């Protein structure tokens, strides 16, 4: 991969992972509600999902998933339902006092992994990356040696930033009313993303 191609890919990935979505909302919520080391388990889960999707994209499996309208539709509905459930649950629980660091690390990790995996933005983004930036005439694993470290580094920095933002909001939310409404805004974001997911088109199709 040439330097120019790498720079374009890196810029694309910065935009891809810094555009707010379910992962960002989850990281902000973790930062607000959990101790920082515990909240970082959510970032680790996103990196796990990113590594898996990069591998699957290299093998062409995500393209296969996106090419199956029925399979993608079912996955879409499951993901939409999960995000809407998180949003409704978050809205209901918003009035309860925040208890910092009460969730086990495994629970934080698996929850974040589920949010990341059912995110249609992931499938679309990885398909876009591989359709636009992978060069057909160059061995795929040579390109992966450049793409993977770049993507994972940018991803880690981005979602660590969202987690720090959440931690800052948590410290700033000294008033009970402010705290409740910040949490309700985050909950509403999950519902909105769920609705958008349920009505989104299959990547590559209209």
| β-strand amount | under 5%
> How many strands appear in the DSSP assignment?
0
Helix segment count? 9
Q: How many domains would you count in the coordinates?
A: 1
Radius of gyration, taken over Cα atoms and rounded to an integer in Å = 18 Å
Q: pLDDT average, as an integer?
A: 77
Helices and strands: which structural class? mainly alpha
Largest sheet: none
* General form: globular
What is the oligomer described by this structure?
single chain
The SSE order reads HHHHHHHHH
- Helix content range: over 70%
Protein name: LysE family translocator
Keywords: Cell membrane, Membrane, Transmembrane, Transmembrane helix
Subcellular location: Cell membrane
Membrane topology: Multi-pass membrane protein
Salient structural properties:
about 210 residues, membrane, about 80% helix, transmembrane helix, mainly alpha
